[in-house]
Structures are given as structure tokens and as C-alpha cells.
Amino acid sequence: MEPLSNKRKVLEHKPLNFWERIYLPAIAQGLSITMKHFFRKPVTISYPEQKREFSENFRGMHSLKRDEDGRERCTACGLCALSCPAEAITMIAAERQKGEEHLYREEKYAAVYEINMLRCIFCGLCEEACPKEAIYLDGDIVPSEYLRKDFIYGKDKLVEAPLNQ
Amino acid sequence: MGIADIVIKFILVVIIFAISLLIALYSTYAERKVAAFFQDRIGPNRAGPFGLLQPFADGAKMFLKEEIIPTNANAFLFIAGPSLSILTACIGSAVIPWGQKLTIGTHVIDLQVADINVGVLYILGVVSLGVYGVMIGGWASNNKYSLLGAIRAASQNISYELSMGLSIIALLMVTGTLSLREIAEQQHGFWSHGWFTWNFFKQPLGFLLFIVCAFAETNRTPFDLPECETELVGGYHTEYSSMKLGFYLFSEYINMFISSAVMATLYFGGYNFPFMDHIGSPNLVAIIGIAVLFAKIFFFIFFFMWVRWTIPRFRYDQLMDLGWKGLIPLAIANIIVTGIVITFLNR
What we know:
The structure holds two protein chains of two kinds.
Chain A: H1 18-21, H2 24-38, E1 63-64, H3 79-83, E2 89-95, E3 108-116, H4 125-129, E4 135-136, E5 152-153, H5 155-158
Antiparallel strand pairs in A: 1-4, 2-3, 3-5
Chain B: H1 3-38, H2 54-64, H3 75-91, E1 102-104, E2 107-109, H4 119-140, H5 144-175, H6 180-186, E3 191-192, E4 195-196, H7 199-202, H8 204-217, H9 229-232, H10 242-267, H11 282-308, H12 316-346
Antiparallel strand pairs in B: 1-2, 3-4
Helix pairs in contact in B: 1-10, 1-11, 2-10, 3-4, 3-10, 4-5, 5-8, 5-12, 8-10, 10-11
């Protein structure tokens, strides 16, 4: 039968010859290989100081987006929470009052919006579910904390910084 | 021997002790750095500039760890094991000539603690005493894994001591003396009477056997079977913690330093270097000689590490196979060939 790939290699089981049995040529070869690596540039990235570039579609920490006028896009419809397989998202909706039009784009907004980063699996379904293009997982890696409660991120950490006027 | 000589000897002992501890300390750092470079990594670089304080941090950690003596262990022997191990590692440096004699005013300072006429035998004796530290520690732990590790270490060391001794016999036939000082002096310069003076060029096979045995005696890869996580949980020091474990690990590095020094002295001319007769001042020659000796020692330490990060280890039966069926017959053949050559050259 035609082999799928031509990578198959039939190993012959034959006794070692004299040079193989005294090990030394193989050891010298090995030493020269490691010596080549000794002068090679290290591949290490010293993490906190240097960072490796994320790929285009990397999913990191969430951010709640603002529109071009700096108003929060989220309308607290709850589709993200519904779509979340890990049940990491909770929110409490509130109605926009008069005079708050410059803060919230829609008539309803999320007064409390919390994501438990320990539950989140960074699948990106919330991003896909959102009809208002309000949530994106475009942030960095979630930093470490000492306490579990500190992993529950509220709006203070999630909402984008307001636009500079 | 006046009081001044005793004081000078005492100072020399302290300096050599301090240097061997310092080198062992920084060998741990060098090992990690060298390993990193061989694997395209950076290595420890957080503690101090370039991670230079890393060994001190490790040492402090070792001291601060909880000291555990297992209930069913023999407490006296349990403590005696690492103590003996580090003691035998340190006393080997006593007979190594670190340099030519320094002359300061009327004083002649001999840069060797004890110029005994059986120096090579002394080294072999100390090396074989080193097995007791491992053996006692492994036995006193009252743990089957420790005991198995210790038995491995002991049988390995005893097997390789034989071929080490035999490879040295061929060297002694060339040099005609057991004193390390005289062996070093015979290798003066680099070239005389139409041949290299260094013993490596007179005994290449002997050196090869010696270095293989030195790897086995210091329990370094590819002969690091006494330590084995997969089979023995840890090795002969499974039950050890705190600085007692530190002493075991430390004595391995001191052993490496001492065996590098012995190899440099026996086979690579010790403190001798080419064109040393063209330098006028004898004191300058002595000082350069010390630097040269240490350069050779550092090269051998580097070589130990280089091999460690290149070669996988032997299986236990392969190890015994190599020792008994490979090295010992070779060493005996080397003695015979050396004897024949010496006989023909002297005729």
C-alpha cells in the first residue's frame, strides 16, 4: 500500500560497531552540538519587562466599550450573561435618568456589571452575543491576585477610560 | 619550623578552604547559568546583577529550612554522614600544589599545605573515604530508597576507583614519584627534549581513563545514578533536609573542584605554562602560575558541566559493564604499553 506520508523510516536492529561501542565519537559530536547552542542567542523573553506580542485574535481581559461620543454602549440586555458557558457574568440593569444622556447611549444601562475572572474561560461567546458591540476581550492577561474576591471585576476595571475631550 | 611558618601555613589553609568553598558556591551558580546557555535560556538573573547573589539566597534558604531527623533514623550516623562527606571533600585540597614557591624577603612561602611524598595515594585515600559519607548517610536514614541509592553510589565508586588507581599507576611509571609537587615540577614549561612536558601528551589514554573515573567518582552525569528521582525518590539523601542536604550537594561541587585541580596537576602541567622561563621575576612566574592553574581548573569544571548538559545517563548495568569490562582492561593494557615504551626509551 502507498504510505500516506513518505516519512516512515524502517529501523534496522543491528549490533553497535566498534566506534559506537566506545561512545567517544558520539560524545564528541554531542558536545559540539551543545557548544553551538552555547553561543546562540537565548530565546527567553524576560516576562514582566518584555512581552511577547499577542496574536490578532488573542482573547484577554474584557473591556466594556464606549461609543464615539464617550457614552457606554452596554444596554444591560443580559445576552452576554446568557451566552456565558461559565456563568461568569452578572449585571444589574438601571434606567437612564434625564441629564444622563451623555453617559449612557441607550435608555437602559448596567448599573453593576461584574465578571468573575476565575470562572471566565475566555471563550469569547459574550463578545459574539453582544448586539451593541459593547464587550470585547481585547485586553491583556488577567493579573494575579491574592484573594478570590479580587478576581471579580466590576465596572471600575472593565469600562474603557473616558474619551479625552 | 618556626612560628612564622606555622602562621603562614595556617593562613594558607584558611585561604584554600575559603577559596574552595567560594568556588563550590559559585559552581552551583555557574551550573545553572551554563545549563541555561546550553539550552538557549538566560538562567538566574534576578538576585543581584546577573543573578550573582543567587548562591547566597540558596544558601540562606538551606539554613532556614526545617531540620528533620526521622524518628527511626540513627541520629548520630545521620548527622555524621553529611559531615564526613563535606570533610573528605575539603581535605583533598591539602596536597595540591597551588603554585611555585613565593619568596617574600627572606621567607619562602610554599603554596602547598603539605608536600607529602605520597600525595597521589593521599588523594586516592581521601576519594575512597568520600564513599563513607554517602554510605553512612544512606544507611542511617532507615529508608529503603536511601539505602538503595547509597549502595549504588558505593558500588559505583568502588568499581571506578579501581580503574582510576590503575590509570594513575601508568602515570606514576612515567613520573617515578608520588609527590604532587614533584609531578608538577617535572611538567615545567611546555616543551623540552623534543616532546611536550605535560603528562597529558605522555599518557593520553591514562588521562581519558582518569577523567571518566573522575566523572564517576564525583557522581556527575553520565554516572549520576546515586541520585535518581524516578527510581529512588531522591537518592541517598532522600531523608535529608536543611543544611545537611546542603552539605551533600555542596560536597559534590567541592569534589568537582578538587578533582579538576587534581586532573590539572597530574595531567595538564598544574601551574606550569608555556614560555614561563622567559619571565624574569620568579614571583611573577609564581603568581601567573596560580592564575594559570585556576584557569585550567575552571576549564575542567566547565567541562564537567558541559558533559552534564550533553549526555544522557548510563543504565546501571551499562555503568558496571563499562567500568569492569571496558576501563579496567584498558587501564591494564595502558600500564603494559607504558612499561614497554619506557623500557625501550631507557635502553
